[in-house]
Amino acid sequence: MAQRISLTRWLVEKQRVQGHLSAELRLLVEIVARACKGISHAVNKGALGGVLGSAESENVQGEVQKKLDIIANEVLIEANEWGGHLAAMASEEMDGIYLVPNRYPQGEYLLLFDPLDGSSNIDVNVSIGTIFSVLKKPEGQAGVTEQDFLQPGTRQVAAGYCIYGPQTTLVLTTGHGVAVFTLDREQGSFVLTDENVRIPADTKEFAINMSNMRHWDEPVRRYIDECLAGKDGPRGKDFNMRWIASMVADVHRILTRGGVFMYPWDKREPNKPGKLRLMYEANPMAWVVEQAGGAATNGRERILDIQPQSLHERVSVVLGSKNEVERVTAYHAK
Ligand code: AHG
Ligand code: MN
Ligand code: MN
Ligand code: MN
């Protein structure tokens, strides 16, 4: 059997041999992975652990929080605040930024996360996940402000997600391709199971919430209409559809076998740019997808180039197989 490479060993070698990451960033990724392991255990316990159902609270986006949204947020904070690698954190479930308490040393990195992605799937035992993005704090200043987080996705230094499905799988990029690690529950460690993942440029599978069809903008409608027309339509082939309603699970499928994922702007709320959040959903996923040879735009421009204006800013998302994303983006330009 081929030698098993743990996440720890993989990170050490990326740091020591290839210089792909600093010691601090290596520690950060290890700690995020450890937190995800903890979340994975809580998810697996389900009703037995008393973690299902809603909490009596709302987050800053006006969504009712599930118990696991709050638990996962706390696990990530507690795991990360004492390590000395971070200056501050930000999350879907916290209104403002979370400063590392004074009793701990301050590091130079900023960590953003969607602690629990796919909240509507928790209670129905469908795959959910955690998404994370790491930025560097601007140099030569003492404190941290929310403003320091507002950097475009091109400035990420590490990003990825952990999916809690039939397997628990951690997907990571530090800007040198995409690596996949599967949790070995007996050993309690993540083991490298795929490296240099590539998303096929073409696909016959799309993911979109079709119930919003009547609200879509013309270019999105045209693209999906053409897919639905199948072999006899302008695309000359039949398309399949999947919609899991956990971005992590939809993106993971696309990473595995290709496809295009869309959560576009629509007419229900004309002043809202989209549903998904730029800084801790779209940016990390866009970077992972690009690092695997795919593409990610908001229909008009590359997601990673967008200059964020606020922490919880929303964005329209089209990502996945390159030729399909380019087609959807071209339809918007017309
Ligand atoms: P979250 O659970 O972190 O709030 O994110 C849910 C997101 C995303 O994971 C998914 O693609 C989308 O919401 C599903 O939205 P619909 O329920 O509108 O299909
Ligand atoms: Mn939510
Ligand atoms: Mn989410
Ligand atoms: Mn979430």
TrEMBL record:
Stored InterPro entries: FBPase_C_dom, FBPase_class-1, FBPase_N, FBPtase
Family: Belongs to the FBPase class 1 family.
Chief location category: cytoplasm
Keyword Cytoplasm: yes
Name of this chain's protein: Fructose-1,6-bisphosphatase class 1
All residue ranges annotated as the Fructose-1-6-bisphosphatase class I N-terminal domain in the record: 6-195
Cofactor(s) in the UniProt record: Mg(2+)
HAMAP family from the UniProt entry: FBPase_class1
Entry note: cofactor: Binds 2 magnesium ions per subunit.
Catalytic activity, reaction form: beta-D-fructose 1,6-bisphosphate + H2O = beta-D-fructose 6-phosphate + phosphate
Binding site for substrate: 117-120, 209, 275
NCBIfam families hit by this protein: PRK09293.1-1 (NF006778), PRK09293.1-3 (NF006779), PRK09293.1-4 (NF006780)
